[in-house]
């Protein structure tokens, strides 16, 4: 029978390396705190709660560049939204191929005008999401990433695995103690040796003060050992006010403040974040209306979730929200000093630099396009109306689809029978004449 694999240390292709890096940071913070052996209010400086606080601050600061990038993308999107909405309204209900292609071309022209692309915001999100998931994974599997804490649990694990029939006893204990998040049904009936050291540590990491006492009773032959091994584990998990971050919040103790503060700070965070969005058309934007509803629903939902999870999870959410509030205040001030024109100019410069690395001269891009055969142009759709507008000397207003005619060269002036401007054949004819010239 194959060895059981619990969710001990993340080893996925993407999240695995990220989790390891975050784990090194968390372990480094813990080892740094162990240098201070003094106690503060009876709490050792080498404390998991303090580690989570510092760890969250460090990771959020490392992610700050991505946050700023996302804010810049949001600012551009708010300016582009009216133009994109106008294009969608213009072609609303038109399902023919010609209209669909024109809609795509005009939409692309808007993105080129602002020097961005439809995937700009998504790419930032795709980068930040694995980091956030890995962050949760590390916090929920602390013994797997902090060496000293792992050693504490290892002593208890070795003692349990030395007891005959420990697998069945652990399965019964997990059910009776109401521990969730572990696939107990998969190891019921397993013999000695089929639960690895890491599997047992996973179970022990779910224990709080009450369940440690229940565990000691489940293994009477080593109850004294388990009690002594649990003392340093519980001590490093203590928090202010006598709280233990392994316990769940309760209405009868000060721990009730954890879910309340988590909800309050997330509300404040979303409010400040929305304040940074100066989109005048936000009221008419369905996406913004949907986001506003989610910003109310998610904090309330997280507050309820906090009651069903250990205090450590709620502590992370509180610190994360506080850090993001502080960051957002400074980001909002920074973004107020940046105009859309400056963002466009920087985007265009980055794009030109990227094209240059690819061996493409952005200044002669249209000349390269002009060398394309007219036959291929009629088969493949042009990439944007902006490119052809530059060739023909016409300025396209994507919202109204109006065109201002100017000089397009001697070759075009002499061609009185040229196809209608704006059609695919018209674009091909412009390219053909320019190539001849």
Could you outline the blueprint of secondary structure elements for this entry?
Layout (H helix, E strand, L loop, with lengths): L14 H19 L5 E2 L2 E2 L3 H15 L1 H27 L6 H17 L6 H21 L1 H4 L1 H15 L4 H12 L19 H8 L4 H10 L4 H14 L20 H19 L10 H22 L3 H26 L3 H18 L7 H6 L3 H6 L5 H8 L2 E3 L4 E3 L5 H4 L10 H13 L1
Helix pairs in contact: 1-2, 1-5, 2-14, 3-4, 3-5, 7-9, 7-11, 8-10, 10-11, 12-13, 12-14
Q: What's the total count of β strands?
A: 4
Q: Helical region count?
A: 20
Mean pLDDT: 74
* SSE order: HEEHHHHHHHHHHHHHHHHHEEHH
- Helical/strand content category: mainly alpha
Strand order of the largest sheet: 1-2
Q: Tell me the overall shape.
A: elongated
- Percent of residues in helices comes to 55-70%
What fraction of the residues are assigned to beta strands by DSSP? Answer: under 5%
The largest pleated sheet is described as:
2 strands, antiparallel
Question: Gap between N and C termini, in Å?
Answer: 77 Å
The oligomerization state is single chain
Show unreliable segments: 1-7, 188-193, 364-432
Q: C-alpha Rg, in Å?
A: 31 Å
């Amino acid at each position: 029978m194959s060895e059981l694999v619990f969710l001990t240390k993340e080893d996925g292709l993407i999240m695995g390396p990220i989790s390891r890096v975050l784990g090194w940071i968390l372990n480094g913070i813990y080892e740094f705190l162990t240098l201070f052996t003094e106690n503060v209010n009876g709490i050792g400086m080498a404390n998991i709660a303090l580690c989570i606080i510092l760890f969250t601050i460090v990771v959020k600061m490392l992610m700050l560049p991505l946050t700023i990038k996302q804010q810049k993308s949001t600012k551009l999107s708010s300016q582009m939204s009216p133009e994109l909405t106008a294009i969608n309204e213009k072609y609303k209900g038109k399902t023919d191929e010609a209209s669909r292609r024109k809609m795509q071309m005009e939409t692309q022209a808007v993105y080129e005008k602002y020097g961005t692309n439809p995937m700009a915001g998504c790419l930032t999100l795709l980068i930040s999401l694995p980091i956030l998931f890995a962050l949760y994974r590390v916090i929920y599997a602390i013994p797997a990433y902090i060496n000293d804490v792992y050693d504490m649990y290892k002593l208890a694990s070795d003692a349990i695995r030395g007891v005959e029939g420990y697998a069945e006893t652990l399965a019964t204990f997990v059910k009776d103690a109401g521990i969730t998040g572990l696939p107990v049904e998969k190891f019921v009936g397993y013999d000695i040796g089929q639960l690895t050291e890491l599997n047992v540590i996973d179970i022990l990491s779910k224990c709080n003060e009450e369940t440690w006492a229940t565990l000691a009773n489940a293994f009477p032959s080593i109850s004294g050992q388990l009690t002594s091994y649990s003392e340093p584990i519980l001590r490093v998990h203590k928090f202010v006010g006598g709280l233990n971050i392994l316990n769940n919040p309760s209405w009868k103790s000060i721990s009730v403040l954890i879910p309340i503060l988590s909800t309050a700070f997330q509300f404040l965070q979303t409010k400040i974040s929305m304040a940074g969005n100066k989109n005048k058309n936000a009221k008419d934007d369905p996406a913004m209306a949907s986001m506003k509803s989610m910003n109310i629903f998610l904090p309330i939902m997280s507050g309820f979730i906090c009651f069903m999870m250990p205090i450590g999870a709620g502590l992370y959410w509180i610190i994360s929200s506080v850090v993001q509030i502080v960051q957002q205040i400074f980001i909002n001030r920074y973004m107020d000093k940046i105009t859309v024109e400056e963002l466009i100019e920087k985007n265009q410069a980055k794009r030109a630099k990227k094209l240059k690395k690819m061996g493409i001269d952005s200044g002669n891009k249209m000349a390269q396009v002009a060398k394309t055969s007219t036959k291929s142009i009629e088969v493949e759709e042009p990439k944007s109306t902006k490119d052809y507008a530059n060739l023909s000397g016409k300025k396209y207003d994507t919202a109204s689809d109006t065109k201002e005619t100017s000089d397009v060269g001697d070759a075009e002036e002499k061609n009185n029978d040229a196809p209608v401007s704006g059609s695919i054949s018209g674009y091909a004819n412009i390219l053909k004449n320019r190539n001849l010239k």
